[in-house]
Specification:
The protein is mostly beta strands. It is built from 2 helices and 19 strands.
């Protein structure tokens, strides 16, 4: 059992533990706007480790150089650390006095190993649109991005943080997803097939929405080619492509090598329908009588 120090100036006793699960990440601390784009201003390297003595485990939260002191599947004697029981869960933090010694292996049962690894990276089952699992703490949403906002800074109690809103088509349903902090800076494009893990579900008046968490990752599948008929209601020529807006408020772009011409004449024909073949919102070819 892991225990706190006996007095205000004492350290907890040395512990012999094995690291059973480690997750390392670069975590942004502050953000700024650079030429209208949200960027990371300062960041730190963090690691979460499950340290097990063979009977119980405790989660250690490390940062920067301390992340290199612990490796997964290695056993240690650790001295001079701090332990906190805040919110009822024991957490270990390293100090400038912490010393880490490699030692002989600590035996850990399979069941306890699973608990340790889940403490570092909790399960995130796929959200089933037909049979939702409301008891799951985290859920993974798999689908196609049908709309996305620009990333903006929003004021919170922790300062300004980035947020980006997506709409994901999963099965026959569309869901709104709010990406916060580092997740909002991920490279996500229109029409991309994505698996967004470790989302919190919010249900209000039968409307289901999702919010990212510190565990959230975004995995993009191989780029799929879609062919569909769209109704064009807006056209925006830019130096790099011609952007079109559909009646469903989806955006597509036509690269110059696919078509470049006089958009003023085409705008006079709005709205109109066109058959497009596209990958992640970039049109590869199209059929429309109004484009010369």
């Amino acid at each position: 059992m892991f225990s706190k120090a006996s007095g205000p100036y004492a350290r907890p006793p040395p512990m012999k533990v094995k690291c059973v699960g480690k997750h390392t990440a670069e975590r942004a601390e502050t953000y700024e706007m650079v030429d209208g784009v949200v960027a990371v201003k300062t960041s730190k390297r963090v690691a979460t480790c499950a340290l097990c003595d063979g009977q119980n485990f405790v989660v250690a939260h490390l940062k920067n150089d301390d992340c290199d002191q612990i490796d997964d599947n290695q056993s240690y004697f650790i001295k001079g650390y701090n332990i906190s029981q805040k919110y009822g869960n024991a957490k270990v933090f390293f100090t400038t006095s912490t010393v880490v010694y490699k030692t002989s292996d600590v035996a850990v049962s399979r069941d306890l190993e699973v608990q340790c690894r889940h403490a570092v990276c909790p399960p995130s089952p796929v959200y089933q649109t037909d049979v939702p699992n409301w008891t799951a703490v985290y859920s993974t949403l798999c689908g196609r991005v049908t709309s996305l906002s620009t990333t903006r800074l929003q004021n919170t109690k922790d300062g300004d943080v980035p947020v980006r809103n997506l709409e994901v088509m999963a099965g026959s349903n569309k869901y709104e997803v709010a990406l916060w902090r580092d997740a909002a800076l991920e490279d996500v494009t229109l029409s991309a097939n994505v698996d967004i893990t470790h989302l919190h579900i919010k249900k209000q008046k039968d409307v289901v929405t999702f919010n990212s968490t510190t565990y959230t990752t975004i995995k993009k599948s191989e780029m799929a080619v879609f062919t569909e008929e769209v109704e064009v209601v807006g056209i925006c020529p830019t130096p790099t492509a011609v952007k079109i807006l559909t009646a469903n408020m989806e955006e597509f772009s036509i690269p110059p090598h696919v078509w470049s011409g006089d958009t003023d004449k085409i705008i006079l024909e709005l709205p109109f329908k066109m058959l497009v073949k596209h990958t992640e919102g970039v049109i590869e070819s199209f059929e429309c009588p109004f484009f010369p």
